[in-house]
Design a protein that fits this description.
alpha/beta; Uracil-DNA Glycosylase, subunit E; 6-stranded mixed β-sheet; 9 helices; 18% strand
Length: 216
């Protein structure tokens, strides 16, 4: 008998997101999310973490290798660089809520040791994960969202988002039923990959200073 192919809109975390849940219950439920195929290869779901009363929510792309192993966002080199830049910009990293648009690590295996190499999630995968991000926003109610990179921007603002066009500016948009203020910038991992790493870091820091001034 032929197998019925799932429709294109079958990718969604919505059935796995409990209603009227606090963040602890959301995190527990997210561990069992099967809203898209990324859960099959990832070690675990990596849910958001931080101050539930945070004024700032930082939204990145997806967990990396270290995040997938440890179960927490931004614990690798990019996270350490981000914490440094936040502190230098005047935003206490300990008073933020940090999450990703996509909660599972997407990767390909390459090389002699079959090292896990990051692969950017598709817009379809980011949209599928959107109900988790919407629930986080509803519970944290941040004053400002710092958008880290193109994937997070497209997940929040649509496929036409271009980080190079709007980085370091304050946007006001309707996001998941809430009027939000956002400051887009590059993902900190792009700073680590840049030929001019110091220049790239200064650009990230400049954008985060805009975010800090917005909170005053």
């Amino acid at each position: 008998m032929a197998t019925t192919k799932a429709p294109e809109d079958a990718y969604t975390a919505a059935p796995f997101v409990p209603e009227l849940a606090d963040l602890a219950a959301l995190r527990e439920a997210a561990a069992g999310c099967r809203g898209c195929p990324l859960h099959r290869d990832a070690t675990q779901t990596v849910f958001g973490t931080g101050d539930t009363g945070a004024r700032v929510m930082l939204v990145g792309e997806q967990p990396g290798d270290q995040e997938d192993r440890q179960g927490r966002p931004f614990v690798g080199p990019a996270g350490k660089l981000l914490d440094r830049a936040l502190a230098e910009a005047g935003i206490d990293p300990g008073e933020t809520y940090v999450t990703n648009a996509v909660k599972h690590f997407k990767f390909a295996r390459s090389g002699p040791g079959k090292r896990r190499i990051h692969k950017a999630p598709s817009l379809r995968e980011a949209v599928a994960c959107g109900p988790w991000l919407a629930a986080e926003l509803r519970l944290v109610e941040p004053e400002l969202i710092v958008v880290l990179g193109a994937t997070a921007g497209k997940a929040l603002l649509g496929s036409s988002f271009r980080v190079t066009e709007v980085r370091g500016t304050v946007l006001e948009e309707e996001i998941h039923g809430r009027r939000e203020r956002l400051v887009p910038t590059v993902h900190p991992s792009s700073v680590l990959r840049a030929d001019d790493r110091e220049g790239a870091y200064r650009g990230l820091l400049s954008d985060l200073k805009v975010a800090a001034r917005t909170l005053v």
